[in-house]
Design goal:
Elements: H1 9-15, H2 18-26, E1 44-48, E2 54-57, E3 61-62, E4 70-71, E5 80-85, E6 92-97, E7 103-108, E8 119-122, E9 127-131, H3 132-139
Antiparallel strand pairs: 1-2, 1-9, 3-4, 4-8, 5-6, 6-7, 7-8
């Protein structure tokens, strides 16, 4: 699969910190309840920490009590790539950035009480956050 943003693993490793590289490029998972964006509640936009592509709006974030930031939908279905993942002996759906192919987390059909019923369970380290009006303007 080719992406709009493609770099060598050496380039990714040089640009990302060790934890970001492990999550974004090697599909690791940050420890629950440790991410900086877990309790973020300001209005704004969440983007891919690797390439800056906009992924989620703050209005779709909800408290799922799972230990990671959760959203019920992406900014656009084309913003994320969903891939079957059976790596841990169970079937899950991996979420990757559709712009650069970086691992973001997983989506589960247990977002009870949300408009979509989905829970995009994302690693904080895989996202950046832009607050307020500036974020709203770039999201348009």
């Amino acid at each position: 699969m080719s992406y709009k943003v493609e770099k060598s693993e050496e380039q990714w490793r040089a640009e990302l910190g060790p934890e970001q590289y492990a999550v974004l490029r090697e599909a690791a998972t940050e420890r629950p309840w440790t991410g900086e964006l877990l309790d973020e509640s300001r209005a704004g936009v969440y983007a891919c920490a690797a390439c800056g592509a906009e992924l989620f709006k703050s209005g779709t974030k909800f408290d799922s009590n799972c230990g990671w930031p959760s959203f019920y939908e992406s900014v656009d279905p084309e913003a994320v790539q969903l891939i079957d993942d059976d790596s841990l002996g169970m079937v899950r759906t991996e979420v990757r950035c559709a712009t650069c192919g970086s691992h973001l987390g997983h989506v589960f059909p247990d977002g009870f009480g949300t408009p979509t019923g989905d829970r995009y369970c994302m690693n904080s380290v895989s996202l950046t956050f832009s607050e307020g009006d500036a974020a709203e303007k770039t999201a348009e």
